[in-house]
């Protein structure tokens, strides 16, 4: 693969994406986080220097993308925000936001046919490199474990302790970060909040929710809570704070 990793500031404008990226990588409900629906366009437009993509010169297509945002962190694991992704984005756009001193990863997307070839590690390294170029030497990441949806009833605090016989973390995405020197700092128990009506949740998941209760939903890391009396569904996703070495 002849790949380049330009930022949106370096190469602004619309670029052709590989078809598997255009179809959507996440489950449908993940595109309805209340904070990101309100602020993600500002992340892209106001922080173009920190958004980048993997460009395949041979295919002349985008085959992956990375999103990050400057953040402020005092270096104490305990102060990493419990509301992870949502909290970092809201904090950056607050009127009294302090100067940033770290870079926070938001997501890395890779076309399915390009996975398993070491691209994810290259994308993380590129993100950290972009941060250092802007004097943001520490990369922090509220990581979404990519096998946790197979174990939705297992508390994430236990899940992140699971390791393979070779001692590495069981979860592949957490393990990729670990191989690059990152350490688990804490759980972000409310990293993303996705509210909706019962009808919206039935549309997003293509499931019926005939009564109130907790439902295991494909792609969700924890159950979705449905309250038919209030006509409300809520998914609160936990992520895992990982801190990369400066």
Secondary structure elements and pairings:
Blueprint: E1 3-4, H1 19-22, H2 34-46, E2 52-56, E3 61-71, H3 84-92, E4 102-110, H4 119-133, E5 138-143, H5 156-159, H6 172-179, E6 183-196, H7 198-205, E7 213-215, E8 224-227, E9 232-243
Which terms summarize this structure?
9 strands, 246 residues, nine-stranded mixed beta sheet, 25% helix, alpha+beta
Describe this entry's structure for a reader.
The protein has 246 residues and is an alpha+beta fold. It has 7 helices and 9 strands, in the order E-H-H-E-E-H-E-H-E-H-H-E-H-E-E-E. The protein has helices at 19-22, 34-46, 84-92, 119-133, 156-159, 172-179, 198-205; strands at 3-4, 52-56, 61-71, 102-110, 138-143, 183-196, 213-215, 224-227, 232-243. Strands 1, 2, 3, 4, 5, 6, 7, 8 and 9 form a 9-stranded mixed β-sheet that branches. A hairpin with a 4-residue loop joins strand 8 (224-227) and strand 9. The longest helix has 15 residues, at 119-133. The radius of gyration is 18 Å and the shape is globular. The protein starts with a strand and ends with a strand. 35% of the residues are buried. The model has no long low-confidence stretch (mean pLDDT 95).
Summarize the structure in short.
With 246 residues, this protein is of the alpha+beta class. It has seven helices and nine strands. It is globular.
How many strands appear in the DSSP assignment? 9
Strand content: 25-35%
Regions with pLDDT < 50 over 5+ consecutive residues? none
The tally of helices reads 7
Helix content: 10-25%
Structural class: alpha+beta
Mean pLDDT: 95
Distance between the termini: 29 Å
Radius of gyration: 18 Å
* Largest β-sheet summary: 9 strands, mixed
Helix and strand sequence: EHHEEHEHEHHEHEEE
* Inertia-based shape: globular
């Amino acid at each position: 693969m002849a790949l380049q990793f330009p930022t949106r500031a370096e190469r602004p404008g619309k670029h052709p994406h590989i078809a598997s990226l255009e179809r959507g990588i996440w489950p449908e409900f993940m595109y309805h986080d209340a904070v990101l629906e309100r602020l993600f366009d500002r992340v892209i437009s106001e922080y173009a220097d920190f958004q980048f993509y993997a460009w395949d010169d041979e295919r002349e297509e985008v085959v992956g993308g990375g999103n990050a945002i400057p953040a402020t962190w005092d270096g104490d694991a305990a102060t990493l925000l419990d509301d992870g992704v949502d909290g970092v984005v809201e904090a950056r756009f607050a009127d009294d936001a302090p100067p940033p001193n770290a870079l926070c990863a938001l997501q890395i997307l890779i076309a399915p046919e390009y996975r398993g070839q070491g691209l994810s590690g290259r994308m993380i390294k590129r993100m950290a490199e972009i941060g250092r170029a802007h004097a943001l030497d520490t990369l922090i990441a509220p990581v979404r474990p990519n096998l946790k949806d197979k174990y939705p009833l297992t508390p994430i605090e236990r899940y992140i302790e699971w390791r393979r016989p070779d001692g590495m973390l069981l979860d592949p995405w957490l393990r990729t970060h670990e191989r690059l020197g990152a350490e688990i700092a804490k759980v972000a128990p409310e990293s993303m909040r996705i509210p909706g009506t019962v009808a919206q949740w039935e549309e997003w998941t293509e499931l019926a929710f005939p009564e109130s209760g907790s439902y295991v939903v494909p792609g969700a890391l924890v159950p979705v809570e449905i309250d038919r009396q209030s006509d409300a569904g809520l998914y609160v996703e936990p992520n895992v704070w990982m801190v990369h070495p400066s």
